[in-house]
């Protein structure tokens, strides 16, 4: 089966073009990089300049915004929004209906609980490679701790 191109008009009238990802049939911008082994559900969107690592799952209705970087073997539940220029480390888990703000850093192996709202520029979990200390506990980021 060849690539299927889809055009969508945004709120400003601009026409955005997407291709269906072969694993899951999700909408992927031609300017995004998604590894072939990643699964992008048929109703999920991956915007331009975003990158998704091998073995990652992007659930139904989820939206990976421009410039977001998702590591390997990340689980993203249903109806999750990962904000512009955010980074999610390998092995992290983002619960369904969570909202990740812009320029957020989520460490490797961290968990964001379902329905959580992570504010812009937050740091969630420790990323051992960067040496950053977490601003939230490694055990997860609950919606009631977002305030």
Overview of this protein structure:
With 147 residues, the protein is mainly β. It has one domain: Hexapeptide repeat proteins (UDP N-Acetylglucosamine Acyltransferase, domain 1, 3 Solenoid). 0% of the residues lie in helices and 31% in strands. It has no helices and 19 strands. The protein has strands at 5-9, 15-20, 27-28, 33-34, 39-40, 45-46, 51-52, 57-58, 63-64, 69-70, 75-76, 81-82, 87-88, 93-94, 99-100, 105-106, 111-112, 117-118, 123-124. The strands form 3 sheets. It has an 8-stranded mixed β-sheet, with no helix packed on it. A 6-stranded parallel β-sheet has the order 4-7-10-13-16-19, with no helix packed on it. A hairpin with a 5-residue loop joins β1 and β2 (15-20). The radius of gyration is 15 Å and the shape is globular. It starts with a strand and ends in a 23-residue tail after the last strand. The model is unreliable at 130-147 (pLDDT under 50).
CATH topology: UDP N-Acetylglucosamine Acyltransferase, domain 1
Helix count from the secondary structure assignment: 0
> Termini distance?
47 Å
Secondary-structure element string: EEEEEEEEEEEEEEEEEEE
- Helix fraction by DSSP (H/I, runs of at least 4): under 10%
CATH top level class name: Mainly Beta
Query: What is the CATH superfamily classification?
Result: Hexapeptide repeat proteins
Tell me the number of strands: 19
Overall radius of gyration: 15 Å
What is the global morphology? globular
